[in-house]
């Protein structure tokens, strides 16, 4: 901007859109749309209110970390907010995160003496949160991602002062030690009209089988919450083998109890079931607390439904529009393939490890209605991952012309015409694709060992896209600017975009893919590239973990940089990861605590997007 209020002429003239830079215009329009101010009549008012507008936008979302080690700073933040009327009027969303103290973590970072282990016992913090909810002028969302029980006083204040606000509860975990201390608190959200989204994870152990009436709390909340739209129910069973029969009996009691109360939710439109090591999560169980005829989105993760499930599911789910399934077990192909063939034409299909169970021809049968397709074959040891060919991508394009979001697998070692042909097919979609996600393998051998890294071709030899040579300091016509991390000692480090490759070389490779797929990119164009199994829980090898990357590629936001891209690099866990540093190759950041850097991101931007026409 550069100008101040004093620089503005005293005689104000009528404001036009051309007077505003894009960044300012975006903030102003966003602010005006929400009705906080009338349209600005002149430049003087724009300059006068701009800082307040920008600050108000930043203050709309408040994040509070109630981890015992950070709770004092959260209290300070709440106290300051309660004394600032402008902030209270700006807040639209409050997100609470944190959780119980992990014993190993407490040894490294001592817990404050005045902070109880359970948030329910922290009366000081609870009162501050209750006051914050009560005094916020127009709260629209309240997210509880704490893991511990949601205190009833917060739910009551939300219902009283913000009856239209959406309550979302994530990471809601229950284990045997919780039942006798927090289960009564959990009932506060049982019939809350504010609850719109719930994610609950329950661990079943042998001792908890003594309280079967508590096992169905998650499904019961889903059944009775009047306005809930999205629910995720995760179940893990760690009972000893001798207790399996007892668990089966408890599950039968759960079904009987839910049938007894006779409540089946009709507002729920999205249901996710994640029940690893549990073979009871079938259609009958879901039908005991949800009216499946209203379900539009069904996502099955880690569960092993029987073949009978797929034989009758199409008839039980007449409103289904989006289906996602992670094939953790190998099935006969006929029941699952028949399910996708018999159900209504879907708008979204997401299948993991699908090759042996679903045919591509069945997927293409959903035709022009299909908008989003995710096909991912997980990379495993001792197996060779099958990827789609360019011919198969062409068949998808012709059969499903309205696809706008596509996820496929590709082999990192194939820097040849096969990959180029796939990029070209992706570029032929009309209308153009809005998002493409590619899973590259992490270069693991069939025996789980590292393969030799095949170097990327030099810029002049790239078959994907030719580049006009740049100047002496930028021979490839492209250069990256790095965002560096820094540890407590002040030592800088640089993280590679692709493990084993130089960042300039990798950026050139990524930019080539971008230009090949998005010949005429728009601000909404998205390219996500994942190396290795990004979502995998736990590592199959240290080498595989070090090679994981998640690259988010977007068009530069500035109007004068539309020929450039920005690449955001995410890493799953920086602990024990080797990085390149200035004069210190293979310097280790083992000394970093994983909770300090696990969400770190690093951004790269091309300085020249000059490509041959």
UniProtKB/TrEMBL annotation:
Domain of life of the native organism: Eukaryota
Entries under InterPro entries matching the protein: LRR_dom_sf
Designated name of the protein: F-box domain-containing protein
Native source species: Phaeomoniella chlamydospora
């Amino acid at each position: 901007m550069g100008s101040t209020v004093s620089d503005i002429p005293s005689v104000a003239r009528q404001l036009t859109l051309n007077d505003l830079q894009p960044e300012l215009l975006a903030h102003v329009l966003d602010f005006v749309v929400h009705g906080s101010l009338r349209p600005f009549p002149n430049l003087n008012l724009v300059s006068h209110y701009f800082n307040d507008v920008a600050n108000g936008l930043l203050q709309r979302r408040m994040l509070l970390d109630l981890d015992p080690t950070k709770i004092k700073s959260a209290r300070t933040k709440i106290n300051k907010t309660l004394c600032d009327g402008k902030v209270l009027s700006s807040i639209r969303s409050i997100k609470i995160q944190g959780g119980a103290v992990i014993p190993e973590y407490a040894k490294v970072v001592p817990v404050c003496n005045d902070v109880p282990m359970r948030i329910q016992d922290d009366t000081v913090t609870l009162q501050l949160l209750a006051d914050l909810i009560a005094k916020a002028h127009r709260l629209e969302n309240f997210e509880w991602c704490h893991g511990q029980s949601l205190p009833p006083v917060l739910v009551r204040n939300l219902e009283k002062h913000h009856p239209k606000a959406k309550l979302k509860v994530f990471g809601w975990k229950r284990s045997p030690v919780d039942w006798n201390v927090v289960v009564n608190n959990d009932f506060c959200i049982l019939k809350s009209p504010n609850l719109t989204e719930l994610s609950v994870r329950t661990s079943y152990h042998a001792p908890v089988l003594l309280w079967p009436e508590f096992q169905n709390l998650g499904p019961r909340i889903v059944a009775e919450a009047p306005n809930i739209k999205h629910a995720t129910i995760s179940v893990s069973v760690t009972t000893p083998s001798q207790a399996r029969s007892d668990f089966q009996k408890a599950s039968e009691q759960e079904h009987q109890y839910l049938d007894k109360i006779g409540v089946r939710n009709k507002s729920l439109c999205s249901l996710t079931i994640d029940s690893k090591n549990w073979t009871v999560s079938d259609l009958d169980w879901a039908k005991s607390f949800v009216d499946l005829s209203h379900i539009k989105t069904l996502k099955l993760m880690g569960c092993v439904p029987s073949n009978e499930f797929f034989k009758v599911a199409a008839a039980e789910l007449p409103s289904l529009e989006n289906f996602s399934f992670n094939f953790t077990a190998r099935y006969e192909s006929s029941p699952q393939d028949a399910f996708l063939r018999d159900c209504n034409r879907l708008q979204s299909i997401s299948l993991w490890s699908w090759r042996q169970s679903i045919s591509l021809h069945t997927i293409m049968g959903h035709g022009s209605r299909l908008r989003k397709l995710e096909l991912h074959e997980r990379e495993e040891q001792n197996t060779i991952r099958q990827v789609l060919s360019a011919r198969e991508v062409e068949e998808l394009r012709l059969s499903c012309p309205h696809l706008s979001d596509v996820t496929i697998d590709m082999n990192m070692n194939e820097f040849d015409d096969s990959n180029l042909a796939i990029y070209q097919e992706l570029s032929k979609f009309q209308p153009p694709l809005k998002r493409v996600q590619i899973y590259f393998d992490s270069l693991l051998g069939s025996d789980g060992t590292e393969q030799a890294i095949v170097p990327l071709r030099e810029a002049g030899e790239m078959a994907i896209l030719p580049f006009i040579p740049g100047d002496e300091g930028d021979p490839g016509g492209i250069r990256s600017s790095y965002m560096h991390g820094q540890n407590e000692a002040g030592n800088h480090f640089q993280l590679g975009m692709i493990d084993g490759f130089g960042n300039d070389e990798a950026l050139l490779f990524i930019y080539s893919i971008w230009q090949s797929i998005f010949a005429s990119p728009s601000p909404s164009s998205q390219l996500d590239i994942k190396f290795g199994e990004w979502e995998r829980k736990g590592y199959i090898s240290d080498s595989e973990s070090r090679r994981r990357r998640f690259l988010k590629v977007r068009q530069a936001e500035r109007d004068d940089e539309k020929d450039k891209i920005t690449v955001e690099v995410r890493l799953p866990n920086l602990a024990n990861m080797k990085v390149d540093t200035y004069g210190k190759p293979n310097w280790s950041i083992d000394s970093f605590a994983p909770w300090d850097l696990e969400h770190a991101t690093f951004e790269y931007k091309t300085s020249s997007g000059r490509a041959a026409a």
